[in-house]
């Protein structure tokens, strides 16, 4: 995994979006289409908004999957990741080919059906963040680093659920679902490239654990260090607890 460091979140968002857009364009130029994995959440907005400003992307040739969704949450709930993607990406780009994770009816069936589609061909680029507890997608610690299921149903820990309240998606902890559909760690690592966008001071402890601690299920996003084409985007706040100031081009091997 390589690191890119910027002095502010806005500049970082533009740079991450530029890399993502280049990977999408290159895939379309090479094969006539691109397959992407989209991330959601408040921390991804600077990246998502910058990606929408990129030009020259044939969005009608993009097939989109996403990382996760709550079990039992309706599409019209403000915290629904399906709603997030529809409002912030799909309707704004005109993407025609997308697969949304419906956690309202039979989540295990959705895991099997959408998982089979996801695993059918390589993903050109995945977008990801790091949770306050170090989670990757909704793989909370201790994360399952072994399962080969493309998607699985997971139990959300309290730290993860409190993050959702802190970001304003839910009013109380009791309102946050206790389970979610999540892409598995091993499936995410199969993406050809991963763009990891991590702003804000509240993510600094997780960044420190994932970069400077051992690669461990207790710090799920630490596994990104094993991916040769993952790029981690940081700014001063999110990098503030690292032992030394990061420099663009730094590499973090296992």
From TrEMBL:
SUPFAM superfamilies: NagB/RpiA/CoA transferase-like. One of its GO terms (biological process) is N-acetylneuraminate catabolic process. GO terms for molecular function: glucosamine-6-phosphate deaminase activity; identical protein binding. It comes from the Bacteria. One of its GO terms (cellular component) is cytoplasm. Pfam families: Glucosamine_iso. Residues 8-226 form the Glucosamine/galactosamine-6-phosphate isomerase domain. This is Glucosamine-6-phosphate deaminase.
């Amino acid at each position: 995994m390589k690191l890119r460091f910027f002095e502010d979140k806005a500049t970082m968002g533009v740079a991450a979006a530029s890399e993502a857009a280049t990977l999408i364009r290159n895939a379309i130029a090479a094969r006539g289409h691109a397959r992407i994995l989209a991330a959601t959440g408040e921390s991804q907005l600077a990246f998502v908004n910058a990606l929408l400003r990129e030009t020259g992307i044939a969005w009608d040739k993009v097939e989109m999957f996403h990382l996760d969704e709550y079990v039992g949450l309706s599409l019209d709930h403000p915290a629904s990741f399906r709603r997030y993607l529809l409002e912030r990406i799909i309707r704004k780009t005109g993407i025609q080919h997308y697969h949304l994770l419906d956690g309202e009816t039979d989540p295990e069936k959705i895991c099997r059906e959408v998982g089979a589609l996801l695993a059918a061909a390589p993903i050109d680029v995945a977008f990801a963040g790091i949770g306050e507890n170090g989670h990757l997608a909704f793989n909370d610690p201790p994360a399952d680093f072994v399962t080969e299921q493309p998607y699985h149903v997971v139990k959300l820990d309290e730290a993860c659920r409190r993050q959702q309240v802190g970001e304003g998606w839910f009013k109380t902890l009791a309102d946050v679902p206790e389970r979610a559909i999540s892409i598995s760690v091993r499936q995410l690592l199969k993406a050809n490239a991963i763009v990891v966008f991590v702003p804000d001071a509240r993510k600094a402890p997780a960044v420190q654990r994932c970069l400077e601690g051992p690669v461990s299920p207790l710090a799920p996003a630490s596994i990104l260090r094993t991916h040769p084409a993952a790029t981690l985007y940081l700014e001063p706040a999110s990098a503030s607890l690292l032992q030394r100031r990061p420099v663009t081009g730094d590499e973090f091997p296992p």
